[in-house]
Amino acid sequence: MIHVERFKDNPLITPADVKPLNEGFEVIGTFNAAVAQLPNETIMVLRVAERPLNSDPSKLLIPIYDVESQTTKVITKDNDATRFNTSDSRTIGPQQGGYDFDYLTSISYLRIARSQDGVHFTVDDQAFVYPHNDYETYGIEDARCTKIDGKYYLNFSAVSSRGICVELISTTDFTSYHEEAIIFNPDNKDVVLFPEKIHGRYYALNRPTVKSTGHNDVWISSSPDLHSFGDHHWLFSGSKDGWDNGRVGAGLPPIKTDAGWLEIYHAADKSSKYCMGAMLLDLDDPTKIIYRSKNPILSPDADYEQKGFFGEVVFGCGYTLKDDQLTMYYGVSDTSMAACRFSISELTDKLAKHEL
Amino acid sequence: MIHVERFKDNPLITPADVKPLNEGFEVIGTFNAAVAQLPNETIMVLRVAERPLNSDPSKLLIPIYDVESQTTKVITKDNDATRFNTSDSRTIGPQQGGYDFDYLTSISYLRIARSQDGVHFTVDDQAFVYPHNDYETYGIEDARCTKIDGKYYLNFSAVSSRGICVELISTTDFTSYHEEAIIFNPDNKDVVLFPEKIHGRYYALNRPTVKSTGHNDVWISSSPDLHSFGDHHWLFSGSKDGWDNGRVGAGLPPIKTDAGWLEIYHAADKSSKYCMGAMLLDLDDPTKIIYRSKNPILSPDADYEQKGFFGEVVFGCGYTLKDDQLTMYYGVSDTSMAACRFSISELTDKLAKHEL
């Protein structure tokens, strides 16, 4: 165990703090934010999820961005239990079939929250990145931010009827952005970029979702240009039993420490309870794991971590670091943002000694 | 329709022509070969599939390459219908579960066949590439060969409990080879490399298998170094009805013609009948489709194309070209190799006129 101090102001941002951009929609999530520490400002790039208001339970309302008309439309389907499975609040799935979902129940986009003290945030009135191309028609989700050579790179999941792929954009000012590329084709998610080149190549952790056989494991891939990734290596899988037996995925962008690259990742068990774990990767060759924690460093124990749109979830995507103090910002229950702080040296020391 | 002439010697190579490399195994497939035209020799890089001989129908025999002992082992499981689905002759699947298979019934590897006349082939006594790493424990399959800057690049599917990924090797002599990289992580297959750079980047068609939502569609990706691919673009999907409503995938490596990049691809309908279709891509920007055939150019009509280990399949992976005559070598029924020839100008003319 390490000592983790949750912010007393948690949750820091909730859906009640944010007005929907779409008329006739409600904000149901402000969560899973990428984080950047600017000289005078802490930035969260929130995932905001909006859902069409629905007073008729016999109907399913499905939000989809329409590229041609450049608007978010709502498709109506009969809530037919012989056709659709609505047991997961996030998706409208098939009753039978080897895929996960036909539609999402909400549409997500990226919106910035700004803070002077890292605790009290003000959310921008407008989106930073809203779906606008054929790869994003179901929404964009779960950004991560890595500063490389003075520029902030943000990658996020783009969801559409083409599957879930990973897009990269860059910004210097968090006002405008440049579209870089689709860096992983479907199905892939939970990509984090390393902040510097290692032996001349950029690195990224990523989490392909497999259909043929096997598990949803974390891989590590490298790139000469941040647009093209390859030389893929399998990195790790969840355990057969315990807190990480459902799925794993990278969480925070890797942090360079004397003990190795510190990666704080998420894992879910088979009942979809999400915790955060930690691992150290070799500084010189990050395809090598030095040690991976046997137990979570953060579990959904607080009330706001247990209850919400999709409960029992802590899901960290970003951090700030001041001296030895790491502040992890994390989504809770697919609903709100929270934060906690802990000593990075305590964490890396205990990982290096195999005490976690 | 175009005029297609099947070779009168078809099938050119059958499992009876090839001795198994593993004791206690039988060769059940010699198919889906990559092809290279050397100055004095036509090379097929066959997929050879070997299956453990099994006289006990109450048992399932599963061949797996064991990396530690560097041997192909056979695992025995009870043929338990409550646990395993064996309705697909190629796989041992789950009775329930959102993935395709637990194991394969055979192990595939790459073995070279050589010919002076392109019709009569002699198969090497040994493997060219046999599974030997953790990504290949269930076998390696369906190579494609593209000559780039004087070197032959071969990519193939590597199957293991980590999913299906795509590896690249290179050779100059088809005797030894150099391991390049894993160029696509799971699940992906049916990768074909373009034979030259376009605006400074290498290109590849590829076919991610999606689990979240959507279909198994063909994407196009580019690379600065042949190891790392990115800037992924969705290219095309099968139709809702007809011969290509099941799945699509690239077949032959793209051929540069005056009319555009000619891609001869495969498509299956929902009953898994595999045909070959053709399309033209823009020479200057291969992410743009000029025209895709509405009908197949080759269907499994001959007896050897209809009957076999997995019937009703024509599956072309390689070709030779002499003047206007294109010879397509293709696997039939996941069992044997066949070939046919046709006029490439007739094909591209009719595609350009939207007559196919």
Overall 3D geometry of chain A?
Answer: globular
Find the biggest chain interface.
Answer: A-B, 47 and 47 residues
Number of helical stretches of at least 4 residues of chain A: 2
Helix content of chain A: under 10%
Roughly how many Å apart are the termini of chain A?
A: 6 Å
Could you walk me through the main structural features you see in this protein, from its secondary elements to its overall organization?
Chains A, B: Keywords: Glycosyltransferase, Hydrolase, Transferase. Chains A, B: InterPro entries: Glyco_hydro_beta-prop_sf, Mannoside_phosphorylase. The structure is a homodimer. Chain A has about 350 residues and is mostly beta strands. Chain A has a single domain (about 5-350), classed as Tachylectin-2, Chain A (5 Propeller). Chain A is about 5% helix and about 50% strand. Chain A is globular and about 55 Å long. At the A-B interface, strand 13, strand 14, strand 17 and strand 18 of A face strand 13, strand 14, strand 17 and strand 18 of B. Strand 18 of chain A pairs antiparallel with strand 18 (about 230-235) of chain B, so a sheet runs across the interface.
Set out the fold topology.
2 copies of one chain form a homodimer.
Chain A: E1 5-6, E2 25-38, E3 41-52, E4 59-66, E5 71-78, E6 84-85, E7 91-94, E8 103-104, E9 107-115, E10 121-123, E11 139-148, E12 151-160, E13 163-171, E14 178-184, E15 188-193, E16 202-208, E17 218-223, E18 228-236, E19 247-250, E20 255-257, E21 260-268, E22 274-281, E23 289-292, H1 303-306, E24 314-322, E25 325-332, E26 336-343, H2 344-352
Antiparallel strand pairs in A: 1-26, 2-3, 3-9, 4-5, 6-7, 7-8, 9-10, 11-12, 12-13, 13-14, 15-16, 16-17, 17-18, 19-21, 20-21, 21-22, 22-23, 24-25, 25-26
